[in-house]
Amino acid sequence: MEFLKKEIILANGKNCVLQSPGPKDAQKMMDYLKQTAAETHFMLRLPEEVTMTVEAEEKYLKSALEDPLSLMINAVVDGKLAGNVGLSPIAPRQKTRHRVSVGIAVRKEYWGMGLGRLLMQEAIGSAPAMGYTQMELGVYSDNERAIRLYETLGFERWGVLRCAFRLPDGTYRDEIQMGLFLK
Questions:
Q1: What are the Cα distances from residue 53, in Å, to 29, 50, 57?
Q2: Distance (Å, rounded) from C-alpha 83 to C-alpha 137?
Q3: C-alpha to C-alpha distance for 50 and 37, rounded to whole angstroms
Q4: For burial by CB atoms within 10 Å, which of 88, 121, 169, 181 has the most?
Q5: Is the dihedral of CA 19, 25, 26, 27 positive or negative?
Q6: Alpha carbon of 132 to those of 40, 93, 125, 129, 177: distances in Å?
């Protein structure tokens, strides 16, 4: 599903454009995925695991725009891809059709500007129109800033998956599973 373009002035005075990425954004998206994965261990993948071809990413972005059950929103600040949030169905089955998974990342240089909150608010506001009544996410147990953000937006802790992530140094992190009932 495509997100209608929206321009916002951030608290620091910078211009931010929210819009869905399309096939033409494939290389930018791949570079963004590699950079965000390199900046923190809070991402699901390592930078070297961003291995899709530009053609494969173009196809993925095109299908995301056409899928009424999925949504991606990029935050572009001063012409640079600063953050992204995505909504995906938990499973496209009738019994789970009400549940949507949310994933988000913001480039480190843009942390503290309110982009995470802005992107999450747009995702939360968009999900009911897509037919969802329940939003779910998983967050690293040591990602305290993200947990605080999600809780201020109404998410609750629904469970913990022990040792869900094994980092390259051999240490483990638990995953806190969080959910939000949508109005």
A1: 11, 9, 6
A2: 17
A3: 9
A4: 88
A5: negative
A6: 30, 13, 11, 7, 18
Q: Is 118 exposed, middle or buried (0-12, 13-18, 19+ CB in 10 A)?
A: buried
CA distances from 177 to 58, 74, 90, 151, 180 (A): 31, 24, 13, 12, 11
**Which is nearest to 22 in space by CA: 53, 65, 76?**
65
The structure tokens 């009911």 sit at: 128
Angle formed at CA 36 by CA 34 and CA 138, multiple of 5 degrees: 115
Whole-model pTM? Answer: 0.95
pLDDT tens, residue order, the chain (183 aa): 888 899 999 988 999 999 999 999 999 999 999 999 999 999 999 999 999 999 999 999 999 999 999 999 999 999 999 999 999 999 989 999 999 999 999 999 999 999 999 999 999 999 999 999 999 999 999 999 999 999 999 999 999 999 999 999 999 999 999 999 998
The CATH code for residues 6-133 is: 3.40.630.30
Contact criterion met (CB below 8 Å) for 15 and 9: yes
Rounded alpha-carbon distances, angstroms, from residue 115 to 10, 24, 60: 8, 23, 24
Compute CA 69 distance to the chain's CA centroid, rounded to the nearest angstrom: 15
